[in-house]
Specification:
about 325 residues; alpha/beta; TIM Barrel; 12 helices; 10 strands; globular; binds zinc ion
Length: about 325
């Protein structure tokens, strides 16, 4: 189980890191972002800093631009496929999930610096302007007036009367749900909302808005902005049957094409850790002509790396 103090210490240390220290003469670094928000204002929501403050984003990008060479994921694919050489101190910028703040807050900073980037889009989020299951649960735990919670998978009652124990319970929920193959995430949300007396969500403009089809199509031919798939429902692909994997990939790529005018060979695995994809998942991606699919496993890449095992550095 993720220990809150450990994880907070980790985030604190990581927020002091200069991300340019990952840049390397002969290796390629792919940075993984989710979102960028104005100054942090919640006690609970975004406590793992999936979305970083815009000023911090600005200084990270300034530092990377000064010390490194940004290349697109198209160039990464081309270099690896043709065994070319990465430019020295090269890096790429990627965003997972498809948050609107990628375009409204991050894009102006990146475009001003002439830095290419890719957004991997979860298409059902775009279709329904949907929040992920864990974003909904974070919202409920932040907003509730109730002080106790029972998790659907164990019989214990937990206190949620302090910020500390609210974060602890969220970390346990995150860990348990992500590692449970047969658990329906939507049912967990329904159960927790009922217990915590939440019947509707008042969305935050920056944390909750997803990119729209209109925006995707507007940027479909942009020199510096690319889009890739990130599944239709953000389900962990290795947990699914072959038919379900095919659906998650093809529905996502079809919608990007028909609604967003995007023909892409880029994809990224939902969650992206070692146990979240498999040989089977990769072979199905290849059938749908995907050529490049980075993971969320931490590390650097070379021109010998496998395009379906690329590592990334998460920025928090
Ligand atoms: Zn994701």
């Amino acid at each position: 189980m993720l220990n809150r103090e450990m994880s907070e210490k980790f985030f604190k240390n990581k927020s002091k890191i200069k991300y340019s220290s990952y840049l390397s003469k002969n290796k390629h670094v792919i940075f993984l972002f989710h979102g960028v928000v104005p100054k942090h204002k919640f006690k609970i929501r975004n406590y793992i800093r999936k979305h970083i403050d815009v000023n911090r984003f600005k200084s990270i990008i300034r530092d990377l631009k000064f010390k490194g060479t940004a290349i697109s994921m198209n160039e990464v694919t081309n270099i690896i496929q043709n065994k070319k050489v990465f430019p020295e101190f090269s890096y790429s910028i990627t965003f997972d999930d498809g948050f609107e703040n990628n375009l409204s807050l991050a894009a102006p900073i990146l475009l001003e610096s002439n830095i290419p980037f890719i957004i991997y889009v979860t298409t059902s989020f775009v279709e329904k302007q949907e929040m992920s299951w864990i974003d909904k649960i974070e919202y409920a735990v932040e907003s509730t007036i109730y002080k106790k919670i029972k998790l659907p998978w164990d019989k214990k009652v937990y206190n949620i009367n302090t910020i500390k124990n609210k974060k602890e319970i969220l970390s346990s929920i995150r860990f348990f749900v992500k590692n449970s193959k047969d658990l329906d995430q939507n049912l967990v949300v329904i159960d927790i909302f009922k217990q915590l007396g939440i019947d509707k969500i008042s969305k935050d403009k920056f944390l909750d808005s997803k990119i729209s089809w209109r925006q995707i199509s507007k940027y479909s031919n942009h020199d510096l902005i690319s889009f890739g798939g990130h599944s239709h429902n953000h389900r962990i692909l290795s947990h699914l049957s072959d038919d379900e994997i095919r659906f998650e990939i093809s529905k996502c790529l079809d919608l990007l094409k028909s609604m967003g005018n995007i023909n892409t060979y880029h994809f990224s695995y939902p969650e992206g850790l070692k146990n979240c994809y498999s040989k089977k998942v990769i072979s199905i991606l290849k059938k749908f002509e995907v050529k490049c699919c980075p993971t969320a496993i931490s590390g650097l890449n070379s021109n010998n790396s496998d395009l379906f095992e690329l590592k990334r550095i998460s920025v928090v």
